[in-house]
Inverse folding.
């Protein structure tokens, strides 16, 4: 099922994801829906926060992209496309090497792209959708996408990594986007009792 993608200004994008202890049928369904949503939106990665769920869960697929990636599993280089899509639960990134400027977009920021510095390569350990530990090293676009999505899982957005000149030039657009998103949010439900005269509170 294609889910609505949360846009900038929604508070869930700033929440840290909750650890997933077990791969339940609900988690499997969520991962499948996230992949479907990502593809429908033409994206190469999606974090759970972006569909409104603050969980340590991301999906990615760089198999169709013309931007290069490499993937090392167990020390051996493998075919990237053959291992796509990937679903990572509770991912941890380590051993970042290099620094590369590259163009990024984000499904939560329609129409905005910017050059962002990311490590050129990194190691990833996570739990796979089969519940087993998953470890690999990656470079290029795959490394970039995983770093971008991993940021989402911790409430960090790509605008936080833009240089200040870019951020200044986007300030108006971002403000508008934030306002639009917040205007569309359902009103906060009043807590029981609030607004009632003191005399009738029990
Ligand atoms: Zn994003």
């Amino acid at each position: 099922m294609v889910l609505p993608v949360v846009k900038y200004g929604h508070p869930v994008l700033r929440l840290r994801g909750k650890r997933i202890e077990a791969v339940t049928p609900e988690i499997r369904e969520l991962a499948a829906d996230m992949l479907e949503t990502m593809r429908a939106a033409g994206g190469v990665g999606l974090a759970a926060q972006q569909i409104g769920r603050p969980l340590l869960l991301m999906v990615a697929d760089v198999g169709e992209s013309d931007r290069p990636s490499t993937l090392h599993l167990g020390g051996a280089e493998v075919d990237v496309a053959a291992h796509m899509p990937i679903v990572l639960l509770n991912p941890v990134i380590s051993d970042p090497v290099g620094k590369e400027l590259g163009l990024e977009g984000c499904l939560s920021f329609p129409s905005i792209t910017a050059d962002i510095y990311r490590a050129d390569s990194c190691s990833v350990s996570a739990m796979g959708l089969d519940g087993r530990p998953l470890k690999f090293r990656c470079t290029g676009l795959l490394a970039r996408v995983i770093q971008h999505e991993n940021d989402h899982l911790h409430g960090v957005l790509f605008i936080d990594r833009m240089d200040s000149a870019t951020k200044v030039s986007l300030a108006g657009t971002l403000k508008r986007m934030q306002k639009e998103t917040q205007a569309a949010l359902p009103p906060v439900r009043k807590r029981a009792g609030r607004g009632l005269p003191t005399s009738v509170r029990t």
Remarks:
- The CA atoms of residues 53 and 68 lie 30 Å apart.
- The two ends are 45 Å apart (CA to CA).
